[in-house]
Amino acid sequence: MGWSSTPWAELARAKLDHALPADQARLVEVQVGDARRLPELLADLSAQVDLVVTSPPYACDTGMIDKPAWQAGQPLCPKDTLNYSRDPANLGRARGEGWRAGIGEVLAGCAHLLRPGGLLVTVTKNTRRDGRLNDLAAATVQLTGQAGFEYLQHLVALHAAIRDGGLVARPSFWQLTQTRKARARGEPAHLVVHEDVLVFTKPLRVGAGA
Q1: Residue 42 and residue 52: Cα distance in Å, rounded?
Q2: Is residue 135 assigned to a domain?
């Protein structure tokens, strides 16, 4: 199940037929709603879910790249795709403490849905903002702890090939352009070649966690 703005939910539905056999695709439900309100949206699933997998917004500018349009003189990312939504209240537009507060609500909602012993898996990627590293992995560990989870494991998901003991990056046009611009400004930026997969559990202990 996914919670997102309408265009992204429609895209998720469209992909089901390509990703799953028809009999399995029929079992998937895509919902649209504010992930900060999970206890309300999925009240019937309270403390019943075994696994929640989420990749929250990365607290940075993002959009769907349209390179052919850019080559034709149009914006690189269509405005409707920037930061997931034009709605200023969308969590994809949150930064700083606003982002932390919003993600904290999402994680508390995940704890509400999970059964004791259930697993939460998050996927994040460290970014740079104003020339500084934005360590989303560390922030996620801290926020999940505040939501009552116990930390289990940190996995590194490589987005690079391994050749002769070294990493060979496979950047997108956007990543390559942004890294070059940052270095031209004197910032010690490099191509991001991994994402962080963090695993947590809702404690079994009575009275512990959320």
Answers
A1: 13
A2: yes
Do residues 62 and 84 make contact, with C-beta atoms less than 8 angstroms apart? yes
Number of domains observed in the structure of the chain: 1
84: domain range? Answer: 49-159+192-201
Residue 44: inside a domain: no
HEC string of 82-105?
HHHCCCCCCHHHCCHHHHHHHHHH
3-state secondary structure of 110: helix
Q: Answer yes or no: is 174 within a domain.
A: no
Cβ atoms of residues 54 and 89 within 8 Å: no
CB 120 within 8 A of CB 201: yes
Give average pLDDT by consecutive 10-residue segment, the chain, 210 residues. Answer: 59 86 88 88 93 81 64 67 65 76 93 96 83 84 95 91 86 81 83 90 69
| Token pair for 158 | 């490589």
